[in-house]
Amino acid sequence: MVRPRAKLRFPWSTGRARLLPLAVLALALTSCSFIEIDSPLTIFEPAGPFAERIDGLFWPVFWTAVVVFFLVQGAILFAVFAFRDRPGRKEPKQTHGNAALEITWTVIPTLILAVLAVPTVQAVFDLTKCGDDAMVIEVIGHQWWFEYVYPEHGGITTANVLVMPEDQEVCATMTSEDVMHNFWIPALNGKRYLVPGQTTILRLQADEPGEYWGHCAEFCGLSHSLMRARAQVVTAEEFDAWIAAQSQPAEVPAEGTPEWEGLQVFLNKGCTACHAVDFADGSGVDDVVRARGTFRGPNLTHFASRHVFAGAYLPSEDIGYDEALTEWLANPPLVKPGSFMPDLGLTGEEISDLIAWLKSNT
Amino acid sequence: MTATASRPAATIFRRPAATTGFWSWITTVDHKKIGVMYGYTAFTFFLFGGIEALLIRVQLAGPNGDFLTAAEYNALFTTHAVTMVFLFVMPAAAAFMNYLLPLMIGARDVAFPRMNALSFWIFLMGGLFLYSVIFFSDPQAPLGIADATGTTVAGNLDPSYNTLLGGLPDGGWFLYQPNAGPSYSPGLAIDFAALGLQILGVASLISSVNFIVTIFNMRAQGMRLLRMPVFVWMMLVVAFLLLFSLPIIAIALFMVTFDRSFGTSFFQAASGGDPILWQHLFWLFGHPEVYILILPAMGIVSEVIPVFSRKPLFGYAAIVFAGAGIGFLGFGVWAHHMFASGITPVAQAAFGLATMTIAIPTGIKIFNWLGTMWGGKLRFTTPMLFAVGFVSQFVIGGLSGVTHAIVPSDWQQTDTYWIVGHFHYVLFGGAIFGIFAGLYYWFPKITGRVMNETLGKLHFWIQFIGFNLTFAPMHWLGLQGMVRRTWRYAPEMNMGPWNLAATVGAFIIALAVLIFMVNWIWSRRKGQPSGLDPWDARTIEWTIPNPTPEYNFASNPVVHSLDDFWHLKYSEDDEGRPVRRPDADDLVVRLDHEGRNPTEPIHLPNPSYFPFIMSLGLPMIGYGVIWHTALWGKILIGLGALTTIGGLLGWGMEPLEEPHDDHGHDGHGEPAIAH
Amino acid sequence: MSDSTIEVEVDHHGEHESTGIEHRKLGMWVFLSSEFLFFGALISNYLLYGGRDFDSVVPRDIYDIPFTSFSSFVLLMSSLTMVLSHDALARDDQHQARTWLFATAALGTVFLGGQVFEFTEFIEVYGMTLTTNPASSSFYLLTGFHGVHVAIGVLMLFSLFGISLRRGRLSERQGLNLELVGLYWHFVDIIWIVIFTLVYLLSAS
Asked: Which of C30, C35, C134 sits opposite B272 (nearest CB)?
């Protein structure tokens, strides 16, 4: 029998220094406190009853896991140090197993899991059915943006920013126009797929007004990572005001203004193939209103009432609103790979006119 | 007269005779050579997958990364997964299984040696076919469908996206439909993925049949089922998992190919198909697949820990039955990958509970490994370090796995980096650490040398640190809402620092793998000679010389107990402590001598050209199906079918192994014995 | 070479079969267990889509049950002739074995002919093609894959018949082949009975 040599002595070859890597790891893990700034997508700041329900389920499981983690890792470490082959260590007793132990470590995990199972099953049934007085908002997934329709409020159609009142359950009734998407606003609830040809529901509710970030969580193609969402939770009065504003048709700007020039760009450069703008009947451009069901980009009637665009990807910390909009209109596929909005070859002037008009659509 | 000379010369179907050199590898049916080829091929793909991972990590090192295009990123994460799952971990397990299974059950080869070669060649062809996509495919924007008119509207892609890497398959290894369907993933990339996986599936199916028959039928005298090493047991479970899960994914992939190439709409919602059906079929295969990946490593660890603890495996039967239980339950939990898909609450609750139950046999295994170490005399050689590393990291992966069973909790975690962290602890901290344990442990069987321990330990510690630095932060990132498969994340998301840590960790892992490669190459030539029994081992593969003679066992072994070799060397004193038998050292010397000098003629299966020839047909059919609308595509399908059928005919007409016909060639290195 | 070595040769490389079942036979059983899942997935797929309503023609509306019953009967009979052939070979009645082998292959061919006729009718008369809707796709995928299995079986049967004709007899080794083809053939037959029951009889409208 040949025993392999390990003559070269590294610091971790010696007894105590063997702890070094572990110490480094522990240090690294504790240092997470110094960047303990939560992401806007964190699951640790539930803002409504449903997310809180899940949060309440997560922590007991987490701490149970932590306890098991330390027990098992502790046992491993103990075994590693206590039963090392040292000079003079006797040959070990040849134990083959122990029925009592086997039963113990079968039964204890079973019991722990049984305890965890009860609230899990309850929560599943509670959270998968909308309440009776929930407000229905349809969520429709597109590559790569979310569209929201308010059937109880005259079918208002908006995009990217889901506006909803505080303390009011929203029953998101969801489907997809193209591939599978997954709607997720971590502060309000878990995720639910948007399946083409099928309808799924998700309960959403927020206790406080505020802005909550969301993200498409199912891989949906080239720009999946840029398919984001916001939930704008407002007071009941603000919500009513918002509904009233959104119900207004778009105004035709005065002829000769940059806004008017922008509208001409919109009407003549092919934008209307996908984008709807609801003008008042008899305004002269009312035929721009498209029938629902043709290929759809976001409805631009109240574009400027939303502070984000392009799938809630822009603007961001790096880039301001006007700058981002200019970049986006100049070459959409470069900003959002695979985008159905093509590079229309707009000139700088056309873009600034278009922006002027878009910003007038409040 | 040698056997080679005695072969009748009249037939054109002479079986090849080379035992060294290029043709000996092409025509070999020796399970050891096939195992080595599996190993080197798998490791090459591991390097591919690793480079893909590094590129991914560079892109994610900071917010709004622009190192890769979105098309390249999507292609790389898809190819990384496909490569690691199908072209590395599975074939690496096949490498161990091939090399060791006959040695562990006391056989000279597998039940169907030529089919074994066929599996390998088909696997290689499948892998090459899959990667050949890079020469044929460009990144493509999706085609949208306007409901009202049914016309398609093309998405747009900037010309700068037209890069080499962007052409790799980009639908995710899960190929979710309809995203990976004909409209939303036009181009050829997904066709290559679907057909490539199909070819790889054929290879795995053939090996699973082969190994099941081998395990059931070719055990040495006395090698009862419950005397088999745990590794063999785990591979038996894996073979059954493959046997029952592969046909399901085969059907699902056929449906994808029909959708993409022949105009059906199985999963295309726009024409009445059901995309959720794809998920059911995929995960009905995909979850057993997870156990296909981890059980071999569990088997390896179950061999390594007892040897270096100098104790028998604690609760052998419990570990065996827990492994079988995991395999069985593995078929009943697939929908936990779909908790967010809107399946009924009853289904969610049921699959949640089923998922919880899997934790029980998994826990049993972990506790039994601990029980084996407990009170032992632990020698921390490199294989032992990797094995203990496996146990400790697998615990983390297992615990984070339990959180998926808490269904509402999973709604938050699914599709985030929490999951990415979880399964890398299972598949890297688990499977890959296990594979490295096995490589260090059984290296002497291939080379007759021991790998360098200093470099080995260096490798372990660097990999351990790099691994945890890469994947531990991912749990945190996931809980902070970092979604999976994300090409970019916003600076506002505050995810930069931990992503940077993960990227640094990935490069540390790369360094560790480099050290391993240096060690391997160096030790093959210069490593310390191992002798017959370098580890004071327990199982019968160590009763034969290193490197393993071509004929494995000079005489058919007879097995009397579990850990038969150990009991030949050790008796127990009154306290139950092992006492080395006085003749143990002589025994080792004698075994080495006898193993090198067989006394009776040994019949070995003949090498054959036909497995290789048959395997050439499948990629030809694959290319033909992809270009089936062209005439040459149809011709290629025909030629591929002819090649495979021709190979099969040649296979059937090769000189038979019947009495008075052909006796095969004798074991290499054996004195020629007159027949 | 001594006689004892020859015995070892027959006994496959000197290994014994621990289960007492010949390798290839055990292999066939194992393979067929996988095939059950293969057809299980195909049949489930049909059961999912076959009952759904589409704007276009679906299989359940156009089944010709009497015709398919006949072709099912033909396939069932081929299992019987397969048994007879195997039985004859066991008695070393080479002539009978060959005759029944031919009958089995012929019946299989008739079944395939029936399937070709059925497909042609569905496509030409009813306009139901592979791509009409997921129900029709599932139908063709399932019955098509079954047909391919039957065709492979027929090829193997004819090959054995050819060998038997050329050599004048089936050797012991070929006898095992006959048994293996027989196993496969019965499997294909059993699957058809399931398909005929679930896909045709129970879902026809």
From this structure: C134
Same CATH topology for A40-81+99-247 and A258-360: the answer is yes
Whose structure tokens read 């987490």? A62
Contact partners of B by the rule of 3+ C-beta pairs under 8 A? A, C
Q: Where are the alpha helices (DSSP H) in C125-171?
A: 134-167
d(CA B355, CA C3): 58
Which one-letter amino acid corresponds to residue A73? Q
Look up tokens 């006492």; give the residue: B579
Calculate how close chain C gets to B165, using CA atoms only, in Å: 33
Which pTM does this prediction carry?
0.92
The DSSP code for B540 is G
Chain A nearest-CA residue for B485: A219
Average pLDDT for residues B376-387, to the nearest whole number?
96
The mean pLDDT of A168-190, rounded to a whole number, is 96
Taking the CA atoms of residue B624, residue B629, residue B635 and residue B638 in that order, the dihedral angle to the nearest 10 degrees is: 60
**Scanning the structure block, which residue is given the tokens 């072209």?**
B87
Mean pLDDT confidence for B145-158? 78
Separation CA B562–CA A141 (nearest Å): 59
Nearest CA in chain C to B269: C134
Task: Report the alpha-carbon distance of residue A165 to residue A4 in Å, rounded.
Answer: 71
Q: Do chains C and A touch (3 or more CB pairs under 8 A)?
A: no
> Residue ranges per domain, chain A?
40-81+99-247, 258-360
B229 close to B305: Cβ distance less than 8 angstroms: no
Two tokens at A229? 């969402």
User: How many angstroms separate the CA atoms of A59 and A39, rounded?
Assistant: 19
* pLDDT score of B305 more than 90: yes
Whether A165 contacts A242, CB under 8 Å: no
User: What band does C3 get if pLDDT is binned at 50, 70 and 90?
Assistant: very low
In this predicted structure, the answer to whether residue B12 has a pLDDT above a threshold of 60 is no
**What distance in Å separates residue B228's CA from the closest CA in chain A?**
15
Helices (H), B539-630: 564-569, 584-596, 610-626
Banded model confidence at residue A334, pLDDT cuts 50, 70, 90: very high
And the tokens for B589? 């010397």
Closest to B119 measured CA to CA, from B631, B518, B661, B618: B618
Domain C23-201 CATH (choose: 3.60.15.10, 1.10.3470.10, 3.40.50.300, 1.20.120.80): 1.20.120.80
- Answer whether CATH 2.60.40.420 is correct for domain A258-360: yes
- Residues contacting residue C24 through CB under 8 Å, at least 6 positions apart: B112, C176, C180
Per-residue pLDDT of B382-410, as tens digits, reads 999 999 999 999 999 999 999 999 999 99
CA angle A261, A266, A268 (to 5 degrees): 90
Start-to-end CA span in chain C (Å) = 69
Which CATH class, in words, describes the domain spanning A40-81+99-247? Answer: mainly beta
Domain coordinates in residue numbering, chain C: 23-201
Tell me the backbone φ, ψ of residue A171, rounded to 5 degrees: -100, 100
Whole-angstrom Cα distance, residue A158 to residue A165?
A: 15
Residues in chain B: 675
The model's pLDDT over C124-164, given as tens digits with 9 standing for 90+, comes to: 999 999 999 999 999 999 999 999 999 999 999 999 999 88
Other Cβ atoms less than 10 A from the Cβ of A281: the count is 8
CB contacts < 8 Å between B and C, how many? 129
CA B349 to chain centre: 32
Question: In this complex, which of B184, B364, B464 lies closest to A178 when CB atoms are compared?
Answer: B184
Token pair belonging to A290: 């498209």
CB-CB: which of C5, C27, C131 is closest to B111? C27
**Over 80: is that where the pLDDT of C4 sits?**
no
Joined tokens for residue C35 = 């095939």
State the alpha helices, DSSP H only, in B263-381. Answer: 275-309, 316-329, 345-373
